[in-house]
Amino acid sequence: MTELKDSAQTALARWREVAASGDFSKVGEIARKDVIFRSPVVYKPYKGREALTLVLTTVIKVFEDFTYHRQFVSEDGLSVALEFSAHVGGKELKGADFIKFGEDGMIEEFEVMIRPASGLMALGQAMGAKLEGKLDILKGGDA
């Protein structure tokens, strides 16, 4: 079984603390300034800590019963896939967070995949409503 490198393991432990607390405003402490975030809703990635923080602080308000289940580690020990489940507006969904850490333990890339389509559509609608007026942050980032 592949193990995470120490730097990534430390960062993942911090990520789990942030996720458990629901206070994603602290994600910037473990993400590179030029972090890349890939949303399951849009094709073009978002760049920068500010965009990542905005999306994560918003999505945790939309998700109900968010729970992580399984964890998978890449062969190089610098990436992890975290399986999760949640509800949005009565729709059940399952997904995975794919997090790539740098050698320094900082998050370089964060990608989310979600199924089924009905859950993803409910999430997209709820996020769109909450992010209205904040899209400039997502388009520009702070990279």
From TrEMBL:
Residues 13-109 form the SnoaL-like domain. It comes from the Bacteria. SUPFAM superfamilies: NTF2-like. Pfam families: SnoaL_2 (PF12680). This is SnoaL-like domain-containing protein. It comes from Hyphococcus luteus. The lineage of its organism: Bacteria, Pseudomonadati, Pseudomonadota, Alphaproteobacteria, Parvularculales.
